[in-house]
């Protein structure tokens, strides 16, 4: 080996620790991202709004599942179409303080007089998913509690928690009030 070859070999050896650091840093970054993605999809952010209505579960269910009439009374989901049955896809247009958004959730549960639940996804899933539910609970003769909830999961959800609370939750309350009024004036 000549004297001129030694500095080149030393330079090459000097670069290897740099690559190792880069690989370690990349592995750490991927681990952090994987942990964040796992956390954001296993720890949901939930909105909840309830109202008591002087009505039967069947009366509330009838209004809730009359999708064609949403444009007549619903200030939040201003239009909806599809079939309320498990596995069906609905087309819902939602309005809140940020404007209108159309989404196509899949019905997960449709138990007459008790529960309607659907899942909407932004993208392929795990990005911004919302599992929306309407629970109808009999609390006395001719009286029910309607609880509207949505469990949000996905990597973008933590960045929108404030907006969901400030702009979407009031729409849950508005829809509950309008549904109660619709049921009692029918």
Automatic annotation (TrEMBL):
The chain crosses the membrane at residues 21-39. It comes from the Bacteria. Keywords: Membrane, Transmembrane, Transmembrane helix. InterPro entries: Polyketide_cyclase/dehydratase, START-like_dom_sf. Gene3D superfamilies: 3.30.530.20. This is Polyketide cyclase / dehydrase and lipid transport. The lineage of its organism: Bacteria, Bacillati, Actinomycetota, Actinomycetes, Micromonosporales.
């Amino acid at each position: 080996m000549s004297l001129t070859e030694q500095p080149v070999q030393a330079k090459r050896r000097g670069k290897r620790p740099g690559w190792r650091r880069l690989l370690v840093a990349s592995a750490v970054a991927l681990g952090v991202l994987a942990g964040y993605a796992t956390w954001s999809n296993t720890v949901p952010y939930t909105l909840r709004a309830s109202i008591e209505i002087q009505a039967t579960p069947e009366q509330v269910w009838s209004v809730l599942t009359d999708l064609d009439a949403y444009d007549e009374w619903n200030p939040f989901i201003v239009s909806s179409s599809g079939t309320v049955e498990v596995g069906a896809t609905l087309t819902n247009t939602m309005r809140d303080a940020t404007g209108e958004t159309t989404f196509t959730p899949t019905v997960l549960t449709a138990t007459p007089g008790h529960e309607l639940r659907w899942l909407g996804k932004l993208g392929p899933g795990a990005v911004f998913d919302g599992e929306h539910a309407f629970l109808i609970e009999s609390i006395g003769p001719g009286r029910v509690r309607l609880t509207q909830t949505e469990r949000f999961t996905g990597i973008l959800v933590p960045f929108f928690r404030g907006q969901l609370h400030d702009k979407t939750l009031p729409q849950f309350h508005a829809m509950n009030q309008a549904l109660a009024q619709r049921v009692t004036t029918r």
